[in-house]
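step=encode ok
step=design start
structure_in=
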């Protein structure tokens, strides 16, 4: 592996670890652009999934006391059903078109709420919608690697303490992406080249995630919700640019 490739892998790991440590999602959105410069697309995705899980475990440990199993199960069980449904749709739907639609949605959502003085405040229980969001998240994870986008949007509408939001979002993403990584592993994707990339990326991402976790601990609940909304806006821009480039 060349020095240039090692540098790009390490830079991607810096962004991946920090964003996952800070917000509990976003590894693929913020790191794939670096890794795709020096890795084949499927290899870059494999690295992204592995880093999401490894750094996600740290985040789960940080908010372990705030994890509410019944609430998590409402999202996660439907997601586990959505994953095989998404895999079965891969041959029939265009992942690029789907990513463009999601990008426009994230842009509209992020831009609207980023300009609002008052944050949205959804307080009533919505178990059916929660389950539907979880299902679609699993489906999108299998189709486009975007399991966290819709759950993050939905949870940012709730005036919850940051630990409660993170206590649902982080384990949800870690488990869904962990299952995706296992499926790739069964297909033999984690070969010598990918494992070498992970040898470089994992320690860098773990250290960077600690910085993100420290920032997460410093901000208050309102700032964390603002952060999620801003990240949705940035995610939409990044996803739109990447999707448009891949379709040219």
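sequence_out=
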């Amino acid at each position: 592996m060349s020095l240039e490739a090692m540098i790009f892998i390490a830079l991607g790991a810096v962004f991946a670890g920090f964003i996952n440590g800070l917000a509990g999602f976003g590894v693929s959105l913020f790191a794939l652009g670096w890794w795709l410069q020096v890795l084949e697309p499927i290899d870059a995705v494999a690295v992204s999934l592995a880093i999401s899980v490894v750094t996600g475990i740290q985040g789960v440990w940080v908010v372990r006391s705030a994890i509410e199993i019944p609430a998590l199960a409402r999202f996660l069980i439907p997601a586990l059903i959505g994953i095989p449904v998404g895999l079965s749709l891969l041959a029939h739907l265009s992942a690029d078109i789907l990513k463009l639609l999601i990008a426009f949605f994230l842009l509209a959502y992020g831009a609207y709420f980023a300009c609002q003085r008052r944050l949205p405040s959804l307080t009533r229980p919505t178990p059916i919608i929660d389950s539907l969001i979880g299902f679609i998240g699993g489906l999108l994870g299998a189709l486009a690697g975007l399991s966290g986008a819709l759950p993050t949007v939905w949870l940012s509408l709730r005036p919850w303490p940051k630990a409660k939001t993170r206590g649902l979002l982080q384990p949800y993403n870690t488990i869904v992406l962990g299952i995706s990584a296992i499926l790739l592993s069964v297909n033999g994707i984690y070969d010598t080249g990918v494992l070498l990339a992970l040898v470089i990326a994992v320690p860098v991402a773990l250290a960077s995630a600690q910085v993100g976790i420290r920032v997460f601990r410093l901000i208050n609940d309102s700032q964390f919700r603002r952060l999620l909304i801003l990240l949705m806006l940035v995610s939409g821009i990044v996803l739109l640019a990447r999707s448009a480039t891949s379709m040219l």
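step=design ok
step=annotate ok -> Residues 3-247 form one domain.
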